[in-house]
Design goal:
Length: 320
């Protein structure tokens, strides 16, 4: 089969480093900032500095993206990591074409602070560019504690742009988290990162996603998580229900068979004909989050603010 496009680029990507379980390669890229389709997001553009994610979350919806590179084994997503070849001038050219009124999210298909970031610092280089301009609305989503490395840089960005940082914390149970997210930092480390950033004036929230029926959807547990988020300085708290389709479906069902065999058949039936559970379950979870937020005193979404170094000529709508 003749490879073209991103598949050809991945095949020809020079190896940077190989460990026992993971390899890192340099991937040429024709685009850094991508348009996000659909209206359900609070942002119109996304930036993913890496392809693949070493954190190996059992539920990660983005595993399918490696198939674009003709890497079709589910584990390829967590063992074949591609760091994009950095080009600051090209990134700046792309950024200049994004309307000032439209929000940009860093980390949607892969975690921008995954382990590869310690080696290649692509997310940091992106933030360094944002620290030289102003007037944007930015989201960062991660389940790492590594943002603490960039604390001063994030402060600079937050002074020039509307900056929100989402930390994904699916559970306070470290053992459960280790099974669900084998190579992600512990939940307490993520909450410590929330506390550090919040204390430095950076607006943070905690996202308990995905909600897994029968695993992390207990109201008492979610209330405890929300309390910890509030104590750490989070301003908002939310979450969404598990989205499950191939190849992630096979990976997650295998995990259930090993770790939660009593739920395996139920999940098979629930996700047999679609990627989401019933509308009734969605409504139940939405109501549950509302009760938890009300009980703890957290918002559903981030509160708009005006950065101190915001350029008046670049003002945009702050409505989320």
């Amino acid at each position: 089969m003749q490879l073209v496009g991103i598949a050809k680029a991945a095949h020809n990507a020079p190896l940077l480093e190989a460990k026992r379980q993971v390899s890192y390669s340099h991937l040429a890229t024709g685009k850094w900032i991508n348009r996000v389709e659909g209206s359900r997001h609070s942002f119109e553009w996304s930036i993913n500095p890496y392809r693949g994610c070493e954190m190996a979350c059992q539920y990660c919806y983005a595993r399918y993206t490696h198939e674009f590179m003709e890497l079709r084994e589910p584990e390829d997503f967590e063992t074949r990591i591609f760091a994009k070849v950095w080009n600051a001038s090209e990134f700046r050219r792309e950024l200049a074409k994004v309307p000032m009124s439209q929000a940009i999210a860093i980390g949607t298909a892969t975690d921008p602070y995954q382990h590869a970031e310690r080696r290649y610092e692509l997310t940091r280089r992106i933030l360094e560019v944002f620290a030289t301009v102003s007037g944007r609305k930015l989201w960062i989503t991660t389940k790492s504690d590594l943002p603490m490395r960039d604390l001063e840089l994030l402060q600079q960005v937050a002074k020039r742009h509307v900056l929100y940082v989402n930390f994904t914390v699916t559970t306070l149970d470290a053992q459960l988290a280790r099974g669900l997210e084998p190579r992600a930092p512990r939940p307490d480390l993520r909450l410590a990162a929330v506390a550090s950033l919040a204390a430095a004036g950076i607006r943070c929230g905690v996202i308990a996603s995905p909600i897994l029926p029968g695993i992390n959807d207990d109201e008492i547990d979610l209330h405890a998580l929300a309390q910890q988020a509030k104590a750490s300085g989070a301003q908002w708290f939310g979450g969404g229900v598990l989205f499950l389709k191939s190849p992630t479906k096979e990976v997650f069902l295998s995990y259930l068979e090993r770790e939660h065999p009593q739920l395996h058949r139920k999940y098979q039936a629930t996700y047999e004909t679609g990627a989401r559970p019933s509308r009734e379950y969605h409504q139940k979870i939405e109501a549950l989050f509302e009760r938890v937020r009300l009980g703890v005193g957290l918002s559903r979404k981030a509160t708009p603010y005006l950065p101190p170094d915001w350029e008046r000529g670049n003002q945009l709508s702050l409505a989320l």
